[in-house]
Fold this sequence. Notes:
The chain is of the alpha+beta class and 144 residues long. Helix content is 34%, strand content 39%. The chain has helices at residues 16-26, 52-61, 82-92, 120-129, 137-143; strands at 2-11, 31-38, 42-49, 65-77, 97-103, 110-117, 134-135.
Amino acid sequence: MKLKQLSIFLENRPGHLSNACEVLSNAGLNIVTMMLADTSEFGILRLIIREWERAKEVLESAGFTVNLTEVLAIEVADEPGGLEKILKVAEAGGLSIEYMYAFACKPNKNALIVVRFDDISRACSVMTDSGIGVLSAAGFYNEA
Length: 144
């Protein structure tokens, strides 16, 4: 149920983001979802790509520093309190959230969030044991 996510470290200068996207585009790789965070000196581009191994290879070959992490894609009721329910389950399970971002697809009329937990294996168990929908990679990519 874990998804592989690539984190690409970019200098905070014009053209670095488009260069990374160009490398992926030239390799015929499509970004399923992404998030960009920055500081004054560098940015971190977080990507989920179906062919993540190939993406990591072409980015590193082009000189980018790439880190592989695991995240969960969690279904969230698209209603007031939907996210709060997920956060309360995480809190009750003693889980810390490092970051999260939304994904635009809505399977089963739910929203999706991508979450990086401090303990991804335990988070997967806590969420599924609580009846929270955690998508498998196949389910995630079928919804994308």
